[in-house]
Structure formats: C-alpha cells, structure tokens
Specification:
308 residues, alpha+beta, Rossmann fold, Methionyl-tRNA Fmet Formyltransferase, Chain A, domain 2, 2 domains, 7-stranded mixed β-sheet
C-alpha cells in the first residue's frame, strides 16, 4: 500500500522504521508537527520523525493545521491508500480523514477503551495497572473511540517509569501496526467496535498535577514519580523552591509525619500518609541532577523543615 505516515516524537520512530523496511508498503510522505524550539539554546529543530524521513529521502509535510487547504491538496495528490498515525500530536479534521481509502489507522498506547487521550502510559502507571498494551484502531471524529483492529499486551513492571514502559510499547506496537496494515491490505482484517463499558480517560498530566502530595499514601507517591518520569517530572517545594524528584523507594515500617525529612549519611526519608519513602535522585531548581544524600548534605534541612 501507499502510505502517508503521521507522527512527531521519538516514540513514533520504531513504527516508521518498520514501515520503511516493509516490502509490502511504500511510505510516500510523512506528516509531522512544524519545527520547534528545543534544548538549552532554544534552537529550532525538526521533529525526530522529520529527521528520519529526510534521511530516508521521504517527503516531509509540516502543516500548521491538518485542515490547511494546501496540505489537503498535497495529501490528495499523493493518493495514499492508508495513513498510519503514531503520536502525531494534532487533531485530524474530517476533510483529512476522508482522503485515504482505508482511512487513518492509529497506534495508541493502551488497551482501548481504557485510557483514551494524550497520556495513556502515564495514567496506567499512576493508577497501578498491572497490564497495559497498545491498540491499532480506525480514527473517527470522537477521541480514540474508533473500532479496533488489534492489540498487544505488556506487563507494567514495579520499577517502570513512563519512559521505560513507552520504549517497550513503541517497539511492540510497531510490529502490531505493520501487521495491522498487512491485514488491511489483504482484506483479512476488519475492525471491531470498542465496548461501551470500561472507558477511562487519560488527559495530559500538567506540571501542577505532578506536584507531590505528601498527605497521600507512599504507594501513590511512588506511582506519581514514576508516571511523571521523564516528563513533566514530579516535584515538591523546599524553602520556596522546586525540587524535582526521581523514583523513590517505599521504606516499609518507617513512619514520619507527611513531608517530614530525615537525612542521614546514607539515606533521605520523607514522610507520607503511610510509610515513608526513600528519595533516590533529586534536582533542585536551577541545578543539576544529584543523589538525595548529596542534596541533603548541601542544604542541611532543619528539624522543623518539611517538603510542601
């Protein structure tokens, strides 16, 4: 099939590579978000998907909106049979959805209808899911509600962050997407409507959402920190400044008041509503990432000072 691939971040690269390497499909163009500022110097860079496409000699389309007339004209001229989508990051109007004869097929990193929305992996970790996965489905106007072609499952490991879990799902999902397109081309695969029960939503986790609430149980703090790693990064406040938190360890049997800090030569414990947690790495505002013990040695928290 002739494909126009839509995607933007590194998460989409395993799928794009799989389709470029597929003997059955031809990626004639990619659609990606416009070049954006990134890095310390805030220089303008192309998206990871754009970089890979250009390296592979594939046309890159960067519409400000997917409904732009010039973009739609070019999309129609390319005559794609199907448009696979992985983390494109923008809404697709009906005028774009109507162009390919097999529609737009999205790879979504959850077991639909669970965790529809922008942050499915983060919410799976935050809510303590033991199993998650990826789904391929036909894009319709309603958010992540189209009929499903296929799924793969993935165990959520105890130490998983959103970053490590998404890395695995990006790889297994790439295989699922390629197999889905093969089945669609053969006419052997028909999507099935999502069940009405079990719908949960996964909105983007904001910086405000990522603030640690030490009045919650230790298990919640552990999940929050892992769910927000690497982005947006869980954080707390000490002496009026933000401190980013790396993954923590629940210190079973250690009880402290919520937010209370106990620092020794070998560990830094912080109280929660249940057991304390032991901090791993932290990043004070405007400074580098460092071990919690090193941080505590520098700031010397007083006995009445707490994380807020």
């Amino acid at each position: 099939m002739r494909l126009v691939f839509a995607g933007t971040p590194e998460t989409a690269l395993p799928s794009l590579r799989a389709l470029i390497d597929s003997p059955r499909h031809e990626v004639v163009a990619v659609v990606t978000r416009p070049d954006a500022q990134s890095g310390r110097g805030r220089r303008v860079h192309p998206s990871p998907v754009a970089e890979l496409a250009e390296e592979s000699g594939i046309e890159v389309l960067r519409p400000q909106k997917a409904g732009d007339p010039a973009f739609l004209d070019r999309l129609r001229a390319l005559e794609p049979d199907c448009c696979p989508v992985v983390a494109y990051g923008a809404l697709l109007p009906q005028s774009a959805l109507d162009v390919p004869r097999h529609g737009w097929i999205n790879l979504h990193f959850s077991l639909l209808p669970a965790w529809r929305g922008a942050a499915p992996v983060q919410h799976a970790i935050l809510h303590g899911d033991e199993i998650t996965g990826a789904s391929t489905f036909q894009i319709v106007k309603e958010l992540d509600a189209g009929p499903v072609y296929g799924v793969v499952t993935e165990e959520v490991r105890a130490a998983d962050t959103s970053g490590t879990l998404l890395e695995r799902l990006a790889v297994s999902g790439a295989g699922l997407l390629a197999a889905t397109l093969d089945g669609v081309e053969d006419g052997a695969l028909e999507p099935r409507p999502q069940p009405a029960d079990g719908v949960t939503l996964a909105p983007k986790i904001s910086v405000a959402d990522a603030r640690a609430d030490w009045g919650r149980p230790a298990m919640h703090l552990d999940r929050l920190v892992r769910a927000c790693a690497p982005n947006p990064g869980a954080w707390t406040e000490f002496r009026g400044q933000r401190v980013k938190l790396g993954p923590v360890r629940v210190a079973e049997g250690e009880r402290l008041a919520p937010g209370e800090i106990v620092a020794t030569k070998t560990s830094v414990l912080v109280g929660t509503a249940t057991d304390a947690v032991e901090l791993g790495e932290v990043q004070p505002q405007g400074k580098r990432l460092m071990g919690a013990v090193e941080w505590a040695r520098g700031v010397r928290p007083e006995g009445d000072e707490v994380f807020k």
